[in-house]
Write a structure and sequence with these properties.
Elements lengths: L1 E6 L4 E7 L4 E4 L5 H5 L5 E5 L5 H4 L2 H7 L1 E8 L2 H14 L13 E3 L3 E5 L2 E7 L8 E5 L4 E5 L2 E2 L2 E2 L9 H12 L6 E4 L5 E2 H7 L1 H7 L10
Parallel strand pairs: 3-4, 4-5, 5-6, 10-13
Antiparallel strand pairs: 1-2, 2-3, 7-8, 8-9, 9-10, 11-12, 13-14
């Protein structure tokens, strides 16, 4: 039901969830996402955060399919502009995307998309706009750059905050242990497994990230 597309300059994960009459697209990281969407008549886009590697394919998707809604936190454009500056500093040639957000989130919100009830959970720390999307009926969490298999999101980029990241990870840790975690980079995992074996997650839950600065 969920298709993963690895795309964009930093090989970000994009996800396509086919529902009743349309597709939910999470973080269109490159134009490869648009090509996979050819079988969909319409789509809604969910953006976890505005870092360039997660929205690089947004323009392609908007041009290739009927997009009914683009959902992101209200700070996404600000975060995106800063991330473009970083991309330039890192020597990456990134084409500027069109951030045409039609639904700006203020915090947590409940969404209804193509037969799915989606909980948007505001989880700052990696970036000021970071939002994850949880679908209880599927036990799926699109975690963006908050939580990875064996790791967590970095907090040393502009707008990052270790204490906020800790609080966001604590929120997510209260979801059911069998929740499948679909992260912004790398392989998927299971929340309960990460609670047991992820050393950085364990540090975060103890409020000790400020003592760890190796990336």
């Amino acid at each position: 039901m969920v298709t993963r597309v690895v795309a964009g300059p930093l090989e970000a994960n994009s996800y396509i969830l086919r529902g009743d009459g349309g597709c939910v697209v999470v973080d269109p990281g490159g134009c490869d996402v648009a090509r996979v969407l050819e079988a969909c008549d319409r789509a809604s886009i969910l953006i976890t955060h505005g870092h360039f590697d997660h929205v690089a394919g947004l323009k392609c998707v908007l041009e290739s399919i009927n997009v009914e809604e683009v959902v992101a936190h209200r700070l996404v454009a600000e975060v995106y502009r800063e991330s473009l500056r970083l991309a330039s500093m890192w020597g990456l040639d990134v084409e500027e995307a069109s951030l045409s957000v039609t639904r700006a989130l203020e915090g947590d919100e409940d969404l209804s998309l193509y037969g799915f009830k989606v909980k948007a959970l505001y989880t700052p720390g990696h970036s000021p706009d970071h939002t994850v999307y949880y679908i209880p009926s599927l036990s799926i969490l699109f975690s963006g750059d908050l939580l990875f298999k064996g790791s967590i999101g970095r907090w040393d980029l502009p707008g990052g905050d270790a204490s906020l990241l800790e609080e966001s990870l604590k929120r997510v840790s209260r979801l059911p242990g069998d929740t499948r975690v679909l992260p912004g980079h790398g392989d998927d995992t299971v929340l309960g497994v990460e609670m047991r074996v992820n050393p950085l997650l364990q540090l975060a839950l103890k409020g000790m990230l400020e003592h760890y600065s190796t990336f």
